[in-house]
Every structure is written in C-alpha cells, then in structure tokens.
Amino acid sequence: MSTPKEITVFATTTNYPAGVDPWSGTAVKVLPGSTYLTPRVGVPAQWLNYEINAIETKVNQVLTGVGRGPVLSYEKMGAGYTDANTVAHALMWHPGRRQWFAACVNDGTGDVEVYRSENGTDNTVSDNGSDWSANFGPAAYTTGGDIQVAIGYGSGSARHYLLLTAGLNENVKLWDGSSWATHTYTLTTAGSSLDKAFVHSPTNGKTYLAVTNSAHRLEVFESDEDDLTTWASVSNSSAAAGAPSNNSTYIVEDGAGNVFAMTNRSTTGVIFSRLVSGSWTSTADYDFDGEVASVSEHGLCGLVWSATHQALFALVQTTATALKVLKSSDSGATWTTQKTFTIGAASDWKAAGPNGEALDIKIHAQGSFVAFGTFLCMFFTTAGAADDWSRIMYSADEGVTWYESGFWTPSRADAAPAGFAHPCQMAISHNRMLAITDTQGVSTLWAFSAFGDPGLAFDEDP
C-alpha cells in the first residue's frame, strides 16, 4: 500500500459570509466550551468545525513531518530466549522452515546456544517470531575463547537444514530438524578462524561460508551437496596489510548467483572477494575504487545487497571521525560515497545522530546493517550509564538521507554488561524485519514493517 496523501482540511474559512443570520460574519471555528458532548444536548456548529479542523490539520502535519514517504514502524514482539549472560548473537529467517532462528554464546560457560521460533507451522505458516523454543544447540559446543557465532541454511532440497559455526572451531554443525552432525573445513593458510558468515544462493543452489583468518586473509568455502558434508575452498585472498580491531566478516548474494564477501583485516582498505559470472577474484587492501583511503578502528561495519535498488551497499569507518555509506551498482567494480557521518574519538565511538545528539554507538556486528525493501537500515545501541537503549536509522533514498526509528532497552543505572559490544541483530523475512536486543542475557524482540514502501509488497519476501 502507499503512504496516505495529504487530506483536504474541513472548515478552513475564518468567518461565515455576511448576511441576516445570527452567525453571519462570526467565526466559523470556536474553541469548545466543554470537554465532552452530552446526549440529547445540541452543540454549536462552530465547536465541531473547530475540532474537525484541528484533527485534520494535525494529520497533515504528521504526513508532512515524515515527508509523506516510506516510514519504518515497529512493535515489540515479547521476550525471546533468556540466559544468564548471552553475547555474540546471530539471527536468521529460514525460508525453508518458515521460522526464525537465533544463536548466541553463553559468556559464562562459552557454550553455543540455539533457539527457534515456534508459533508457526514448518513450511506452511509464516512465523512472526513471538514465541521461542528452549535452547536446542549441540552439546558441548564451545567457542574456544573467541566469542562469535554464525548461522545459515543449506541448498536445494536441503533448505530445511540449519548451519552453525562458532568461535575458533573449523567446522560446520548441521541440524536436520532432530539432531546435529559435524563437518569440517580446513584453512588453506595456517591461522585461526576469527569470524565467519554464511550465505545461500538460490540461483546456483550452493551455500558459501566466508572465514576471516588470523593470518590476514579471507577464505571462502562452498558446498553444493544436499547433505552439506563437504566444504571446499574456492577463494583464498593474499595477505592484507595490518588488522583493525573489528574482525567482522560479511558475505551476500545478488539473486543472480554472484557472491560478494568482505572482511576487515586491512588498515588501508578491506579484503574483498567476489564471484562474478562464475569466476572468483580477491583483492587485499581494497579501497572501494579510491573512496576509502584507510580503514580505522571498527572499519567495515556492514555489507548488504539491495534487491530493490539492485546495488551493493557497504558501511565503513574510514577514519577516527568518519563513517561512510558506500554504493556499487556494478558488482563492486566502482563505488560512490552516499553519506559521510561525522563521529567522535574512536576510543568512545561517539556519533552525531540525525538530530545532532551525541551517541555512544556499537554497530560492528553481523546483521546490524540490512536492506529491507526500499530501506537501508543500521541498528546500533548507545552504551551510556543509566540510559542504554537501541535505535535504528534508516534511509529510503539509497543511503543519502537518514531518519530515526528509535526504540529502547530497559534503562538501568549500572554500566553496560560484558559483551555489550554485540547487543543487537537484524534479519529479514516476509515483509518483516526482526531485531533482537540483549540486556544482560534477556533478549527482547522487535518486529518492523514498512509503511508506504513501494518497493515492498505485503505478500512477498523482500
């Protein structure tokens, strides 16, 4: 549906026309002398004129305030999964099972936990994510000390499989709906798997796993078997120059079988590996076609493909005081800067919000930057004492102009808990975007919907 157009306001005339009637030449609108109407007691027409005019005028002011353009609305879905202290969340909509899945790491034990939404029926009824299972993660699966987790799904007839990998483990856990199996991959260059991400290509039926290696490389593995037991290396970058503190890995697919992976293992750019027209290429210290002279502190904060805009978008901290939104419409060959946010010192990650307020934000987490119909959305959390809360900024014009859709986690007087650098995740489903915010181990789910977005129908997946 389209956003409502401005309405014609009732009773805009100041005075009645001159004449012989008692009201002739008097005010059309008069402030009511009562705060309610009484049955069987008439009221002056001028009172009703005043109220109708005021309501319709206010409606048009609201429409003007949002530019009568696409609006991102949200609603709280209720509590998700709960644990003593969970960090490093991953969130995914599974198109085969028609369910939401979430994975996290218990910061106390290091165990990887997995949850699924349960208020839908597998494969038939879309699930809105308002009711969640108990933890059904694989037994004795820990991170090995590196707190990160990734989930994905399989290919072809195996789309009902759930994929999981976490921490320093060089393996993929596969859940078939009842039990877990373990399948390994081997890094071509000796090192440790610092961060990982999955993507599935419906076009070529393959599933890809991107791995950031501690040896300053990005390696991509693929599996095209229905049982997903074999993971073969298809791309291994050359070594990059230096390593920013954020190791986040991103991999996306464009709906035509082209795959794009990036990681943040370089101080002079990023590592960029891509499968275009059936061939893999990889570039270390990639500078986004000259748009990025350096990568600072958190560096690469997101990579998404927008089906609506048919373009790649990247979110990169380029210096201690700049965060850029970049766009490519030619499979990453050339890039343009859509927006540069001015931020403060890298040590406290201060950023000026759309209204000029200072924000202590945390955005470097897989899934914190997504494309949702017409919208680009970035999800971050302020981390100040007594006012911790989460916010989404969104753009409907390919990242040039940004708006706020603020919502919050419960305020508290203590400092942010351990692991709060990864408090939030977003994922996309059938005209819904689900976000998880975490407050000291208790997750809260928010469902977002697009109002007046011409690029997103209400009965289709974005």
What do you see in this structure?
The structure is a single chain. With 462 residues, the chain is mainly β. It folds into two domains: 1-68, no CATH class; 77-451, Methylamine Dehydrogenase, Chain H (7 Propeller), CATH 2.130.10. It is 5% helix and 42% strand. It is built from one helix and 29 strands. The strands form seven sheets. Strands 21, 22, 23, 24, 25 and 26 form a six-stranded antiparallel beta sheet that branches. The longest helix has 21 residues, at 45-65. 45% of the residues are buried.
The biggest beta sheet reads: 6 strands, antiparallel
Specify the helix fraction band: under 10%
SSE run: HEEEEEEEEEEEEEEEEEEEEEEEEEEEEE
Low-confidence stretches: 345-361, 383-388, 407-423, 452-462
CATH class of the largest domain: Mainly Beta
The Rg value, from CA coordinates, equals 26 Å
Number of strand elements: 29
Distance between the termini: 15 Å
Let me know the CATH homologous superfamily of the largest domain: YVTN repeat-like/Quinoprotein amine dehydrogenase
Overall domain count: 2
Number of helices: 1
Q: What is the 3D shape?
A: elongated
What structural class do the secondary elements suggest?
A: mainly beta
What CATH calls the topology of the largest domain is Methylamine Dehydrogenase, Chain H
- CATH architecture tag of the largest domain: 7 Propeller
